[in-house]
């Protein structure tokens, strides 16, 4: 069984971040239909909570 990795998504309108397999239709925080960007950390040099602050 293949496990789908969880991704950290960030709302481009309000900046809310959350972890899920895919982005939501509407933002859980602002309630708008927003674009979400993947801000997950995939490289060893971004230590911390699993997000990369260098990504928009």
Describe the protein in words:
With 56 residues, the protein is mainly beta. The protein has one domain (1-46): Single Sheet (Rubrerythrin, domain 2). The protein is 0% helix and 21% strand. Strands 2-1-3 form a three-stranded antiparallel sheet, with no helix packed on it. Strand 1 (7-11) and strand 2 (17-20) form a beta hairpin. The protein is flat.
Sum up the structure in keywords:
56 residues; mainly beta; Rubrerythrin, domain 2; 3 strands; 0% helix
CATH class: Mainly Beta
Query: What is the ordering of alpha helices and beta strands?
Result: EEE
Oligomer: single chain
What is the percentage of strand-forming residues?
Answer: 15-25%
What do the pLDDT scores average to? 80
| Widest sheet, order of strands | 2-1-3
CATH architecture: Single Sheet
CATH fold node name: Rubrerythrin, domain 2
Termini separation comes to: 33 Å
Poorly predicted tracts of residues: none
Percentage of residues in helical conformation: under 10%
List the helices and strands and how they pair.
Blueprint: E1 7-11, E2 17-20, E3 36-38
Quick description:
It is built from no helices and three strands. The chain is an all-beta fold and 56 residues long.
């Amino acid at each position: 069984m293949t496990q789908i990795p969880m991704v950290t998504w960030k709302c481009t309108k309000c900046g809310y971040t959350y972890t899920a397999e895919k982005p939501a239709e509407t933002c859980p925080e602002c309630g708008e239909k927003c674009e979400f960007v993947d801000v997950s950390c995939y490289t060893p040099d971004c230590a911390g909570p699993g997000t990369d602050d260098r990504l928009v």
